Amino acid sequence: MFDLLTEKMRAGEQTLEINKEAFWSVPSDQAYEIYNEPRELTIGMISESWNHLEDMLSDPDRVVGYGFVWLAEVLRGIGDEATSRGMGSPEH
Questions:
Q1: Residue 46: which of 13, 24, 29, 14 has the closest Cα?
Q2: For residues 65 and 74, is the Cβ–Cβ distance under 8 A?
Q3: What tens digit of pLDDT does each residue of 60-81 get?
Q4: 3 state DSSP class of 21
Q5: CA pair distance 56, 70, nearest whole angstrom
Q6: Which residue of 56, 68, 74, 88 sits 20 to 30 Å from the alpha carbon of 1, by its own alpha carbon?
Q7: CB count, 10 Å around CB of 30?
Q8: How far apart are CA 85 and CA 81, in angstroms?
């Protein structure tokens, strides 16, 4: 699915700039407790998540499971920006 989505973006030859930086982040131990409101929210930064991912590329031994979380945060920013620009809508 990831390959399909990135291929669609490349096929359109569009450059997408993420115009948002900070986002609310729910700690992972609270994110899946849907019957309880999160007790604390933190602030995440897309650029910080991206920097962590770049660091992983420069040092492959540093690849960690948390990389998926950083990637998800960046992909969320891309998805939100793409949908706000009308670059696709959910199909049901």
A1: 24
A2: no
A3: 777 788 899 999 999 999 888 8
A4: coil
A5: 11
A6: 56
A7: 14
A8: 6
